[in-house]
Amino acid sequence: MKKRQELYAGKAKSVYYTDDPDRLILQFRDDTSAFDGRKKEALSRKGMVNNKFNAFIMGKLEEAGVGTHFDGLVSDTECVVKKLEMIPVECVIRNIAAGGLCKRLGIEEGRELDPPTFELFLKNDELHDPMINESLAETLGFATPEQLARMKVLTYQVNDVLKALFAAGGILLVDYKLEFGLFKDEILLGDEFSPDGCRLWDAKTREKFDKDRFRQGLGGVIEAYEEVGRRIGVSFD
After folding, report:
1. How far apart are CA 120 and CA 143, in angstroms?
2. pLDDT value at 102 more than 90
3. Could you read off the pLDDT of 42-74 as tens digits, one per residue?
4. How far apart, in whole angstroms, are the C-alpha atoms of residue 117 and residue 144?
5. pLDDT digits 0-9 by tens, 12-22
6. Largest CA distance in the chain
7. Domains detected in the chain
8. Among 36, 39, 191, 213, which has the highest number of CB atoms less than 10 A from its own CB?
Protein backbone atom coordinates (compact mmCIF):
# COMPACT_ATOMS: atom_id res chain seq x y z
CA MET A 1 0.00 0.00 0.00
CA LYS A 2 1.41 3.37 -1.02
CA LYS A 3 1.00 6.61 0.89
CA ARG A 4 -0.40 9.43 -1.22
CA GLN A 5 -1.13 13.13 -0.62
CA GLU A 6 -2.29 14.52 2.70
CA LEU A 7 -6.06 14.58 3.20
CA TYR A 8 -6.21 16.38 6.52
CA ALA A 9 -3.94 17.67 9.29
CA GLY A 10 -5.43 17.95 12.75
CA LYS A 11 -3.96 19.12 16.04
CA ALA A 12 -1.94 15.96 16.66
CA LYS A 13 -2.57 13.64 13.70
CA SER A 14 -2.36 13.77 9.93
CA VAL A 15 -4.39 11.67 7.50
CA TYR A 16 -3.18 10.57 4.06
CA TYR A 17 -4.79 9.00 1.04
CA THR A 18 -3.41 5.67 -0.17
CA ASP A 19 -3.60 3.79 -3.47
CA ASP A 20 -6.57 1.90 -1.95
CA PRO A 21 -9.70 4.10 -2.08
CA ASP A 22 -11.07 2.36 1.02
CA ARG A 23 -7.97 2.83 3.18
CA LEU A 24 -6.13 5.79 4.71
CA ILE A 25 -2.88 6.20 6.61
CA LEU A 26 -3.18 7.83 10.02
CA GLN A 27 0.01 9.49 11.25
CA PHE A 28 0.47 10.33 14.92
CA ARG A 29 2.67 13.40 15.35
CA ASP A 30 4.57 14.61 18.41
CA ASP A 31 2.41 17.75 18.52
CA THR A 32 0.32 18.37 21.62
CA SER A 33 -2.28 21.06 22.18
CA ALA A 34 -4.85 22.07 24.75
CA PHE A 35 -7.47 24.77 25.35
CA ASP A 36 -8.55 24.88 21.69
CA GLY A 37 -4.95 25.19 20.52
CA ARG A 38 -3.95 28.04 22.83
CA LYS A 39 -1.31 25.83 24.43
CA LYS A 40 0.96 23.91 22.06
CA GLU A 41 4.15 21.88 22.36
CA ALA A 42 5.98 19.07 20.61
CA LEU A 43 6.71 16.18 22.98
CA SER A 44 9.39 13.69 21.96
CA ARG A 45 8.13 10.12 21.35
CA LYS A 46 4.47 11.13 21.65
CA GLY A 47 3.55 10.09 18.11
CA MET A 48 5.08 6.65 18.57
CA VAL A 49 3.59 6.13 22.02
CA ASN A 50 0.05 7.10 21.00
CA ASN A 51 0.23 5.07 17.78
CA LYS A 52 1.19 1.89 19.59
CA PHE A 53 -1.14 2.57 22.52
CA ASN A 54 -4.04 3.06 20.11
CA ALA A 55 -3.17 -0.10 18.17
CA PHE A 56 -3.21 -2.13 21.39
CA ILE A 57 -6.57 -0.74 22.53
CA MET A 58 -8.18 -1.18 19.11
CA GLY A 59 -7.03 -4.79 19.10
CA LYS A 60 -8.59 -5.43 22.50
CA LEU A 61 -11.86 -3.86 21.39
CA GLU A 62 -11.93 -5.91 18.18
CA GLU A 63 -11.40 -9.07 20.27
CA ALA A 64 -14.42 -8.04 22.36
CA GLY A 65 -16.62 -7.60 19.28
CA VAL A 66 -16.40 -3.82 18.83
CA GLY A 67 -15.80 -3.04 15.16
CA THR A 68 -13.11 -0.43 14.53
CA HIS A 69 -11.50 1.28 11.56
CA PHE A 70 -8.04 0.02 12.58
CA ASP A 71 -6.32 -2.33 10.12
CA GLY A 72 -2.71 -2.45 11.32
CA LEU A 73 0.55 -0.66 12.08
CA VAL A 74 2.80 0.35 9.20
CA SER A 75 5.50 2.23 11.16
CA ASP A 76 6.24 3.52 14.65
CA THR A 77 4.02 6.54 14.05
CA GLU A 78 1.60 5.36 11.35
CA CYS A 79 -1.26 2.91 10.95
CA VAL A 80 -3.67 1.91 8.18
CA VAL A 81 -7.35 2.54 8.80
CA LYS A 82 -10.57 2.05 6.89
CA LYS A 83 -11.86 5.23 5.27
CA LEU A 84 -14.99 6.15 7.19
CA GLU A 85 -17.71 8.66 6.54
CA MET A 86 -17.40 10.28 9.95
CA ILE A 87 -20.45 11.15 12.04
CA PRO A 88 -19.79 14.60 13.57
CA VAL A 89 -20.96 13.61 17.05
CA GLU A 90 -18.63 12.73 19.92
CA CYS A 91 -19.84 10.21 22.50
CA VAL A 92 -18.54 10.79 26.03
CA ILE A 93 -18.73 8.41 28.98
CA ARG A 94 -17.90 9.63 32.48
CA ASN A 95 -17.24 7.11 35.26
CA ILE A 96 -15.78 9.68 37.66
CA ALA A 97 -16.43 13.43 37.75
CA ALA A 98 -13.61 15.51 36.27
CA GLY A 99 -12.93 18.34 33.82
CA GLY A 100 -15.85 20.06 32.15
CA LEU A 101 -18.54 18.26 34.13
CA CYS A 102 -17.20 19.69 37.39
CA LYS A 103 -17.10 23.20 35.92
CA ARG A 104 -20.61 22.98 34.46
CA LEU A 105 -22.38 21.53 37.48
CA GLY A 106 -20.14 22.41 40.42
CA ILE A 107 -19.47 18.76 41.20
CA GLU A 108 -16.32 17.92 43.10
CA GLU A 109 -13.58 16.20 41.10
CA GLY A 110 -13.30 12.52 41.89
CA ARG A 111 -16.98 11.85 42.62
CA GLU A 112 -17.96 8.35 41.50
CA LEU A 113 -20.71 8.38 38.88
CA ASP A 114 -22.95 5.33 39.15
CA PRO A 115 -24.36 4.68 36.66
CA PRO A 116 -21.83 6.27 34.30
CA THR A 117 -23.08 9.32 32.41
CA PHE A 118 -23.40 9.45 28.62
CA GLU A 119 -23.19 12.75 26.73
CA LEU A 120 -23.12 13.92 23.13
CA PHE A 121 -21.03 16.76 21.72
CA LEU A 122 -20.92 18.25 18.25
CA LYS A 123 -17.44 17.87 16.78
CA ASN A 124 -16.76 21.46 15.73
CA ASP A 125 -13.54 23.19 16.80
CA GLU A 126 -14.81 26.66 15.86
CA LEU A 127 -17.77 26.24 18.22
CA HIS A 128 -15.60 24.54 20.88
CA ASP A 129 -17.43 21.19 20.56
CA PRO A 130 -20.76 22.23 22.15
CA MET A 131 -22.86 19.74 24.06
CA ILE A 132 -25.96 18.58 22.16
CA ASN A 133 -28.75 16.05 22.67
CA GLU A 134 -30.25 13.31 20.52
CA SER A 135 -33.10 15.53 19.37
CA LEU A 136 -30.72 18.19 18.05
CA ALA A 137 -28.49 15.57 16.43
CA GLU A 138 -31.48 14.11 14.58
CA THR A 139 -33.24 17.36 13.65
CA LEU A 140 -30.08 19.06 12.38
CA GLY A 141 -29.01 16.00 10.41
CA PHE A 142 -25.87 15.10 12.31
CA ALA A 143 -26.99 11.48 12.84
CA THR A 144 -30.09 9.31 12.56
CA PRO A 145 -31.88 7.86 15.59
CA GLU A 146 -30.65 4.41 14.57
CA GLN A 147 -27.05 5.60 14.33
CA LEU A 148 -27.25 7.35 17.68
CA ALA A 149 -28.69 4.26 19.33
CA ARG A 150 -25.94 2.06 17.91
CA MET A 151 -23.22 4.53 18.91
CA LYS A 152 -24.56 4.57 22.46
CA VAL A 153 -24.55 0.78 22.69
CA LEU A 154 -20.99 0.60 21.38
CA THR A 155 -19.79 3.37 23.70
CA TYR A 156 -21.07 1.51 26.75
CA GLN A 157 -19.59 -1.73 25.43
CA VAL A 158 -16.21 -0.01 25.14
CA ASN A 159 -16.62 1.14 28.74
CA ASP A 160 -17.17 -2.40 29.98
CA VAL A 161 -14.11 -3.70 28.12
CA LEU A 162 -11.71 -0.90 28.96
CA LYS A 163 -12.68 -0.35 32.59
CA ALA A 164 -11.73 -3.96 33.25
CA LEU A 165 -8.55 -3.74 31.18
CA PHE A 166 -7.29 -0.63 32.97
CA ALA A 167 -8.43 -1.87 36.39
CA ALA A 168 -6.21 -4.93 35.95
CA GLY A 169 -3.28 -2.50 35.71
CA GLY A 170 -4.33 -0.48 38.74
CA ILE A 171 -5.76 2.35 36.61
CA LEU A 172 -9.12 4.11 36.82
CA LEU A 173 -10.82 4.94 33.52
CA VAL A 174 -12.26 8.31 34.52
CA ASP A 175 -13.82 9.41 31.23
CA TYR A 176 -13.26 9.32 27.47
CA LYS A 177 -14.64 10.40 24.12
CA LEU A 178 -15.28 8.27 21.05
CA GLU A 179 -15.94 9.09 17.41
CA PHE A 180 -17.74 6.85 14.95
CA GLY A 181 -18.16 6.63 11.21
CA LEU A 182 -19.76 4.58 8.46
CA PHE A 183 -17.92 2.00 6.40
CA LYS A 184 -20.14 0.31 3.82
CA ASP A 185 -23.19 1.14 6.01
CA GLU A 186 -21.59 -0.35 9.16
CA ILE A 187 -20.92 1.90 12.13
CA LEU A 188 -17.31 1.51 13.26
CA LEU A 189 -15.22 3.14 15.95
CA GLY A 190 -12.92 5.72 14.35
CA ASP A 191 -10.27 8.26 15.34
CA GLU A 192 -8.10 6.98 18.23
CA PHE A 193 -8.08 5.82 21.83
CA SER A 194 -5.05 7.12 23.69
CA PRO A 195 -4.36 9.14 26.85
CA ASP A 196 -4.92 12.24 24.70
CA GLY A 197 -8.66 11.57 24.59
CA CYS A 198 -9.44 10.09 27.98
CA ARG A 199 -8.62 10.54 31.65
CA LEU A 200 -6.68 7.83 33.46
CA TRP A 201 -5.81 7.93 37.17
CA ASP A 202 -3.79 5.63 39.41
CA ALA A 203 -6.35 3.61 41.35
CA LYS A 204 -4.62 4.10 44.72
CA THR A 205 -3.09 7.57 44.57
CA ARG A 206 -5.31 9.12 41.87
CA GLU A 207 -2.20 10.46 40.17
CA LYS A 208 -3.09 11.64 36.67
CA PHE A 209 -1.64 9.65 33.76
CA ASP A 210 -3.33 11.46 30.87
CA LYS A 211 -3.35 14.72 28.90
CA ASP A 212 -4.30 16.66 32.04
CA ARG A 213 -0.61 16.48 32.87
CA PHE A 214 -0.03 18.72 29.86
CA ARG A 215 -3.08 20.91 30.46
CA GLN A 216 -2.13 21.52 34.10
CA GLY A 217 1.64 21.79 33.58
CA LEU A 218 2.44 18.74 35.72
CA GLY A 219 5.25 17.50 33.45
CA GLY A 220 6.18 13.91 32.68
CA VAL A 221 3.42 13.62 30.08
CA ILE A 222 4.91 10.91 27.86
CA GLU A 223 6.36 9.05 30.81
CA ALA A 224 2.85 8.86 32.26
CA TYR A 225 1.43 7.58 28.96
CA GLU A 226 4.14 4.91 28.86
CA GLU A 227 3.45 3.93 32.47
CA VAL A 228 -0.20 3.28 31.66
CA GLY A 229 0.81 1.27 28.59
CA ARG A 230 3.31 -0.78 30.55
CA ARG A 231 0.70 -1.67 33.18
CA ILE A 232 -1.82 -2.97 30.63
CA GLY A 233 0.65 -4.75 28.34
CA VAL A 234 1.51 -2.31 25.57
CA SER A 235 4.99 -2.77 24.05
CA PHE A 236 6.71 0.41 22.90
CA ASP A 237 9.84 -1.37 21.59
Report:
1. 11
2. yes
3. 999 999 999 999 999 999 999 999 999 999 999
4. 21
5. 999 999 999 99
6. 50
7. 3-82 (3.30.200.20), 85-220 (3.30.470.20)
8. 191
